[in-house]
Amino acid sequence: MTVAVTPATQVDRSAGVTAPAGFRAAGVIAGIKPAGTPDLTVVVNDGPHDVAAGVFTTNKVKAAPVLWSQQVLSAGKLKAVVLNSGGANACTGPEGFQDTHKTAEKLAEVLKVGAAEIGVCSTGLIGERLPMDKVLSGIDQAVAALSHGPDAGLDAATAVMTTDNVPKQAALTTPGGWSIGGFAKGAGMCAPNMATMLSVITTDAVLDQPHLDHALRNAVGKTFNRLDVDGGTSTNDTVLLLSSGASGVTVSPDEFEAALTVLAGDLVKQLQADAEGVTKHVSITVQNAATEAEALAAAKIVAEDNLCKTAFFASDPNWGRIAMAVGNAPTAFDPALLDITLNGAAICIAGGKGVDRSEADISGLEIDVVIDLHAGPASATVLTTDLSHAYVEENSAYSS
């Protein structure tokens, strides 16, 4: 299933969650972050439909807003989402869950809807309570600033940033007259496996909830779950998809899933490009595995291996580290058939040395790793980054 990326459906990074009809958004400075930067976002679905779906972290330690949003989404509907940066509200006990409940109740009161129609997301340092006075007053401020305009969408994408350097948003309008848009945040602790990574996606297409949910899970599996910056699956990972139906266009599930996958894939590329300390954009493809699950497992092992990641940082075509990592994967193959290609250079052939290392130029920004197991018909690709001095420095200083 594919969507042709024609001029009519080209992804537009100057637009985001307010591109589809029926949505307003805002991002404001609530004072949650000591630095005084934007830290609270509200996205509102004005309808006429309020269909929604969500995918959440698989981490057993789930933040209070994840537990809340999972609970309210059991009804398959959301009128609005409130997101804060500057605090994860994870590992905060019953009091933290009550803080999430109060957050939802406050936005519901201002919008005159029910609290069970409000999604909540948080991101930031784990283990600390949120300053609820600032959160609640920030909601009033954000609702007053709600707008349909593109600036509002960008503000919404900006106010969820933590260690991100730039906001990440995208939108596309299809030839059929319906649109989809969204934003995402995440730079470290980023191996989503869903479902610290948050995304809100909006659409004005008409689609029933079961198909919306199915499309989201499939798209997440092909995009967000194929990004692995550092192997850390956050306590807060959340992707929410809201449909207003405001275009009036009923869309086939296959067509919608294809467009959603294109949009989510673009957001993931932006997440990879802005990962903490990134100096290399690495694509790892494992091909000719017995199953897709085995191909994915092998690609993720390489993506998370620190020896491989430091070699990428050094522009060192050390294929032995890649072979070592693949050999540790829960993947069946004959080591005597293993081939590894780095940026087009067949540096490992049939389990041994291939072309000279000098032919594998990985000194640039992009590194393309292809691992051929010769064990079956399946393949999978994972996006990752290198392990740099800047990554270590940023994460060692994060909570101080």
From TrEMBL:
<keyword id="KW-0808">Transferase</keyword>
<comment type="pathway">
    <text>Amino-acid biosynthesis; L-arginine biosynthesis; L-ornithine and N-acetyl-L-glutamate from L-glutamate and N(2)-acetyl-L-ornithine (cyclic): step 1/1.</text>
</comment>
<feature type="site" description="Involved in the stabilization of negative charge on the oxyanion by the formation of the oxyanion hole">
    <location>
        <position position="123"/>
    </location>
</feature>
<feature type="site" description="Involved in the stabilization of negative charge on the oxyanion by the formation of the oxyanion hole">
    <location>
        <position position="124"/>
    </location>
</feature>
<dbReference type="InterPro" id="IPR002813">
    <property type="entry name" value="Arg_biosynth_ArgJ"/>
</dbReference>
<comment type="pathway">
    <text>Amino-acid biosynthesis; L-arginine biosynthesis; N(2)-acetyl-L-ornithine from L-glutamate: step 1/4.</text>
</comment>
<keyword id="KW-0012">Acyltransferase</keyword>
<feature type="binding site">
    <location>
        <position position="196"/>
    </location>
    <ligand>
        <name>substrate</name>
    </ligand>
</feature>
<feature type="active site" description="Nucleophile">
    <location>
        <position position="196"/>
    </location>
</feature>
<dbReference type="InterPro" id="IPR042195">
    <property type="entry name" value="ArgJ_beta_C"/>
</dbReference>
<comment type="subunit">
    <text>Heterotetramer of two alpha and two beta chains.</text>
</comment>
<feature type="binding site">
    <location>
        <position position="276"/>
    </location>
    <ligand>
        <name>substrate</name>
    </ligand>
</feature>
<comment type="function">
    <text>Catalyzes two activities which are involved in the cyclic version of arginine biosynthesis: the synthesis of N-acetylglutamate from glutamate and acetyl-CoA as the acetyl donor, and of ornithine by transacetylation between N(2)-acetylornithine and glutamate.</text>
</comment>
<feature type="binding site">
    <location>
        <position position="395"/>
    </location>
    <ligand>
        <name>substrate</name>
    </ligand>
</feature>
<keyword id="KW-0028">Amino-acid biosynthesis</keyword>
<feature type="binding site">
    <location>
        <position position="185"/>
    </location>
    <ligand>
        <name>substrate</name>
    </ligand>
</feature>
<keyword id="KW-0963">Cytoplasm</keyword>
<dbReference type="InterPro" id="IPR016117">
    <property type="entry name" value="ArgJ-like_dom_sf"/>
</dbReference>
<protein>
    <recommendedName>
        <fullName>Arginine biosynthesis bifunctional protein ArgJ</fullName>
        <ecNumber>2.3.1.35</ecNumber>
        <ecNumber>2.3.1.1</ecNumber>
    </recommendedName>
</protein>
<feature type="binding site">
    <location>
        <position position="400"/>
    </location>
    <ligand>
        <name>substrate</name>
    </ligand>
</feature>
<dbReference type="Pfam" id="PF01960">
    <property type="entry name" value="ArgJ"/>
</dbReference>
<comment type="similarity">
    <text>Belongs to the ArgJ family.</text>
</comment>
<feature type="site" description="Cleavage; by autolysis">
    <location>
        <begin position="195"/>
        <end position="196"/>
    </location>
</feature>
<keyword id="KW-0511">Multifunctional enzyme</keyword>
<keyword id="KW-0055">Arginine biosynthesis</keyword>
<feature type="binding site">
    <location>
        <position position="162"/>
    </location>
    <ligand>
        <name>substrate</name>
    </ligand>
</feature>
<keyword id="KW-0068">Autocatalytic cleavage</keyword>
